[in-house]
UniProtKB/TrEMBL annotation:
It comes from Paenibacillus paeoniae. It is found in: Cell membrane. Keywords: Cell membrane, Membrane, Transmembrane, Transmembrane helix, Transport. Its main location: membrane. The chain crosses the membrane at residues 12-34, 40-63, 96-119, 142-163. The lineage of its organism: Bacteria, Bacillati, Bacillota, Bacilli, Bacillales. CDD domains: TM_PBP2 (cd06261). GO terms for biological process: transmembrane transport. It is a multi-pass membrane protein. One of its GO terms (cellular component) is plasma membrane. This is Carbohydrate ABC transporter permease. Residues 1-163 form the ABC transmembrane type-1 domain.
């Protein structure tokens, strides 16, 4: 029963990956405006719900690579289900959590379409929307535009360099069969 429910829930969540943003864009914007969430809160909710299918897909795929013997040995040692998860499984999930964090951060950092459709207040505009102002209909200030692009790139690069060690450790964790 639980396995069947898990499979159904998994396929339901992952099926969201097959729906392009262009299809759900207008209903999502109408819903967020109707509920008064045309601010950062609505933007965050949009990123969470649209990024959830890919994150679930990556996490479940990674958890299938964790040996079941680790869970069984924790149960034999007397650990509860929650203790097994928090003390055995969750520490092993650092690489996939870092990967998901990087993908989600880069998606939110570089997104242009959702903030452009959702945010109307100039004081709430995100960095890509502000950078869009450097491109006029008849002229573009390339010096200012490229300086802002470089400044916008720095936090993403620094964040990636900080989280890189967990990704690399996750890539080589299953490289050698023991």
């Amino acid at each position: 029963m639980h396995r069947k429910l898990f499979k159904w829930t998994y396929f339901y969540l992952v099926s969201g990956m097959f729906i392009p943003f262009n299809i759900i864009m207008l209903p999502l914007i109408k819903l967020l405006y109707a509920t008064g969430l045309n601010s950062y809160v609505g933007l965050i909710l949009g990123y969470v719900f649209y990024g959830l299918p890919a994150n679930v897909f990556l996490t479940v795929g990674y958890l299938h690579s964790v040996p079941r013997e680790l869970e069984e040995s924790a149960v034999i040692d007397g650990a509860t289900v929650w203790q097994t998860f928090w003390r055995v499984i969750f520490p092993l999930m650092k690489p996939i959590n870092a990967t998901i964090t990087i993908f989600t951060m880069l998606n939110a950092w570089n997104d242009f379409m959702l903030p452009m459709l959702l945010i109307r207040d100039k004081s709430l505009m995100t960095l890509p929307l502000i950078q869009y102002a450097f491109q006029g209909q008849y002229n573009t200030d390339y010096g200012l535009a490229f300086a802002s692009y470089l400044m916008a790139l720095l936090p993403a690069v620094i964040f990636f360099l900080f989280a890189q060690r967990w990704i690399v450790s996750g890539l080589v964790s299953g490289a050698v069969k023991s």
